[in-house]
Amino acid sequence: MNIWPLVFIFSTLVAAAGFVVVAIFWLKRLRQTIALALGENASQQIRTTQRMGEALAQLQRKQHFYEQRLQTLTEANIHMRQELNLLAGKVEIMGDEDRSGPPSPPTRMIH
């Protein structure tokens, strides 16, 4: 009986087993690397989402502040126009009293 074919078969089996073992270890390492990369990516996205949420909340607070400020300015504008119209009316009346003759209608109205 020739031993060389058995040696060849045995060495081929050992090489194949070694290849499978190395491939298994390599795949495990690859899985760990991928899991780590995905975990870091997910953490980064969560941090980015939190920062965006904080920025959005700050923008909403600023918007609310400016809306309130605009409302205050609008009310002040309305009040000032009323006061100016009242003052213009008084000036017209005083001018009419200074002039002799019939009173004339107001010539200007502030809008």
Structure description:
The chain is rod-shaped and about 145 Å long. The termini are far apart. By secondary structure, it is mainly alpha-helical. The mean pLDDT is 89. The chain has one helix at residues 4-98.
- What order do the helices and strands follow? H
Shape: rod-shaped
Largest sheet, strands/sense/barrel: none
- What radius of gyration results from the CA coordinates? 44 Å
Q: What is the typical, i.e. mean, pLDDT?
A: 89
Q: Could you give a short description of this structure?
A:
The chain is built from one helix and no strands. It is mainly α and 111 residues long.
List strands and helices in order, with pairings.
Layout: H1 4-98
Keywords:
mainly alpha
